[in-house]
């Protein structure tokens, strides 16, 4: 046997990822928030990138619109501040925006009523108290005091609880109204005896309300757990709102898709450095500027490709899942990454990157993109039934059972309907739905 070493040439084709392709794939995987941070980091290190910040009004309106129809029927593209939400400034997430998002959920309010509540919101101070006079508001908007009070109560129903109160007493009473476990004496103590509680006049209060000193002290401890400054709750326990990457709507039976890039700054090339590149004679400086110009153009193209890819994938998703926009999750059909990859003529890994950590705003709420990819089970007719629909069938059977159905019995019923499913699969779905085994489920009377 010849064991001598020999040199041989071998032709092997491999896909080499250039820095441009790597950056493009990285940008594709970013969520909208990550992309915004990445853009700002690149702009900080590249003098040729110039950022134009998005309009704070546009961001405010968009955030409110995402939470529901706020009734602003007039376009603001003409620059006319006709909608009350146009009056709100501030580019960062604030108490004002937090309250506007809740106002956007209100249905049945007139334009004037919304304007009044927006005015109230603009007159909530840094700790959450209302600082405008109701008589002045009534005169300003030509309303009665009763109408103003009712509109203020709408604001006071928002989170954080106690917002829009005019003083400490009202703030605490609003909170007590939402507390099911509040002691009976808590409300009258807050309304009439805060000063006595502060002075620890427990004996006098116990005598007046025919109770014990210990009970008075217990009520005081409960009141002390309430929040005298509603804004503190927003500052320290702020709810994290999901900002969707795409918005999908159904208009006259047609699926409308748009990229939600309202928070992204617009990129352009700095004209000063662009002119310097044309006129400068220094070779080293020119090399630096050319490199930075290439990086800037690469970033801009990468963002454009990201949007195009995500839009294309979403379009194919809702060609399949259009009924979801009307009927919700129960209407989701089986769909695989492979299916979308073939339709969009993309690699499966590219589709996976594109849907990673992305969210879609729909008429049924905000959902991760991955939720629209649904596994299925084959039926006798050769069709694929979605696991969501099968789980719904199992849920309905268990909720309507006259006596507990075993997993095998449920499997038999489904198989009689043409759905090929094993007992262990039924058991798995039952557990995911939160139901106990048949032997542990209480029999219905």
TrEMBL record:
Keywords (A to Z) from UniProt: DNA-binding, DNA-directed RNA polymerase, Nucleotidyltransferase, Sigma factor, Transcription, Transcription regulation, Transferase
Stretches assigned to the RNA polymerase sigma factor 54 core-binding domain: 87-273
Gene Ontology cellular-component terms listed: DNA-directed RNA polymerase complex
Any one Pfam family match given in the protein's UniProt record, by short name: Sigma54_CBD
GO molecular function, a single term: sigma factor activity
Stretches assigned to the RNA polymerase sigma factor 54 DNA-binding domain: 287-441
GO biological-process terms attached to the record: DNA-templated transcription initiation
Keyword Transcription attached: yes
Keyword Transferase in record: yes
NCBIfam families reported in the protein's UniProt record: rpoN_sigma
Family: Belongs to the sigma-54 factor family.
Name under which the protein is recorded: RNA polymerase sigma-54 factor
Organism: Lysinibacillus antri
Lineage of the organism: Bacteria, Bacillati, Bacillota, Bacilli, Bacillales
